[in-house]
Amino acid sequence: MSGPAREGAPAPAGLLARLGLDRPELRAWVLYDVANSAAVTSVLTAILPIYYARVAGAELPPTVATQRFALATTAGLAVVAVLAPILGTLADVAPVKKRLLALFALTGAAATAALFAVGPGDWLLASALLVLLNVGLNGSFVFYDALLPHVAREDELHRVSSAGYAAGYLGGGLLLAAQLAWIARPGLLGLSSGGTPAQATLPTRLAFVSVAIWWIAFTIPLLRRVREPAVRAPEGAAREGTIARLARTVRQLRRHPQAALLLAAFLVYNDGIGTIIRMAAIYGSELGLSRGALIGSILLVQLVGVPCAYLFAALAGRVGAKPAILAGLAVYTGIAVLGYFTRTAAHFFALAVLVGLVQGGTQALSRSLFASLVPRHLSGEFFGFFAVSEKFAGIFGPAVFALAIALTGSSRAAVLSVIGFFLAGAALLLGVDVERGRREARAAEALAGTGVASPPERLA
User: Fold this and answer.
1) CB atoms closer than 10 angstroms to residue 127
2) Residues with Cβ within 8 Å of residue 117, at least 6 apart in sequence
3) How far is Cα 45 from Cα 115, in angstroms, rounded to an integer?
4) Distance from CA of residue 339 to its chain's centroid?
5) How far apart are CA 41 and CA 308, in angstroms?
6) How far apart are CA 217 and CA 226, in angstroms?
7) Which ranges of 226-241 would DSSP assign to H, the alpha helix?
8) Residue-wise over 414-443: b if at least 16 C-beta within 10 A, else e?
9) 288: left (phi > 0), else alpha (psi -120 to 50), else beta?
10) Does the pLDDT value for residue 12 go beyond 80?
């Protein structure tokens, strides 16, 4: 492996290289972002929140439906938060990253397809499937993210991570556009536009099935093209108990304080990001916005997000990943304030543009920055803790949202609660010494020896 590249180092020549897509394994890795983005965009963000509020929870008061959706989201993410560090350490002592990714992806896709069975008043079934969907989706992220430092060189990390988010926005947006078309005009699929409740909801329920098929189809390239990373665990690690492995991971993390501090910052500021992603549509539904306006605004996020994910990667190349993330958090603070005053569809579309501007870039750079601060041979267990941070972000945000509704009887106060997460997370991020963290990670790799395969080097 060549020496660490500075963030401002010139990108390699060639369009595919500049986009982080110049090798088959990079393209295959990026395609899993296309796979899972359909679940995030179409199901969790756009279609299911509205379907939950207006069909599955039709018999519930609007604020109660919002609250139960938030609690079901919290429950699913809590399960992953418990499992992630255990599975992450397992993936570093046995070559199972790809198999575990496939298992969780299949679980999430199956839960998504099963949403086809949810009808009017079936809020309990919808909640149970939402829990299972979140377990499958977010569980797969542990192993997907852990593969990043194995497929990309250090000087490629920001580009490749951003390419994943950009491709995810593009793929998720295309599928959502098709779904929006046949939901608005069922005749495109030869379906009736009315009739019984089952007929009226059929276009939406078919959208859930299409996401499951899409998810599986775009997972296959990663399973075929990306090599399972070799593992080189300490002597006896394979026989080590789960608690002992977790204790060892905590000790390892303490030896990399910059990575640990970034984890703490990400835990806090992603509370706000995760809450905005998961609660935006159901919040808009509660405000009385039409289904077309809500789904259209989420589609707008995808369209704006494609170029902006790459723009953030370019910004990171000029000023560094940490300042770019801080800029994104400043924009998110403004989004929360504007969200409190949102009343109309036009307001919601303006917020969608702002979210699309920063959402993918902020999260992509967080992922790649963390990858640059951890030794590759410990990527599974470290990204297990990264996943715990991300999932706890999902737990606390919706939980605070639900609590604010319970205390105030309104979702508007809950929108303002996310500002504290952005401010506190930014304060922690300011303390991260990126260059020192990279030196510590590379020194740990050198000390560990040559047992971990490196990504291909760029030829002169």
Assistant:
1) 21
2) 125
3) 15
4) 22
5) 17
6) 15
7) none
8) bbebbbebbebbbebbeebebeebbebbbe
9) left
10) no
Query: Could you tell me where the DSSP H helices lie in 94-122?
Result: 97-114
CA distance 363 to 325: 8
* Other beta carbons within 10 Å of 244: 13
Question: 48 versus 446: which is more confidently predicted?
Answer: 48
At 406-460, the pLDDT tens digits run: 777 767 777 787 888 899 999 999 999 999 988 888 888 787 664 444 454 433 2
Give the tens place of pLDDT for each residue, 229-280: 876 655 455 445 555 666 666 777 778 889 889 988 988 898 788 777 767 7
Inter-CA distances, 129 with 44, 62, 279, Å: 11, 20, 17
Q: What is the DSSP string of 173-200?
A: HHHHHHHHHHHH-GGGGT--SSSSHHHH
Exposure string of 316-354, with b = 16+ CB inside 10 Å and e = fewer, is: bbeebbbebbbbbbebbbebbeebeebeebebbebbbeb
> Which residues neighbour 318 within 8 Å (Cβ) at sequence distance 6 or greater?
8
Q: How many CA atoms does the CB half-sphere of 166 hold within 13 Å?
A: 20
Looking up tokens 């300042």 gives 323
Contact 416, 336 (CB under 8 A): yes
Q: Where are the domains of the chain?
A: 22-447
Which superfamily, per CATH, for 22-447?
MFS general substrate transporter like domains (1.20.1250.20)
> How does the average pLDDT of the chain come out, rounded?
81
Structure tokens at 413: 């106060």
292: amino acid identity, one letter: G
Q: Is the distance from CB of 2 to CB of 153 less than 8 angstroms?
A: yes
Q: Which two tokens stand for residue 164?
A: 């994943």
Extract the tokens encoding 431. Answer: 């303390």
Specify the residue for token string 């604020």: 63
Per-residue pLDDT of 70-82, as tens digits, reads 888 888 878 887 7
What is the Cα–Cα distance from 203 to 197, expressed in whole angstroms? 11
Region class of 227: left (phi > 0), else alpha (psi between -120 and 50), else beta: beta
Which pTM does this prediction carry?
0.71
- Helix 24-38 vs helix 97-114: angle between axes, to the nearest 10 degrees? 30
29-33, 90-94, 167-171, 289-293: range with highest mean pLDDT: 29-33
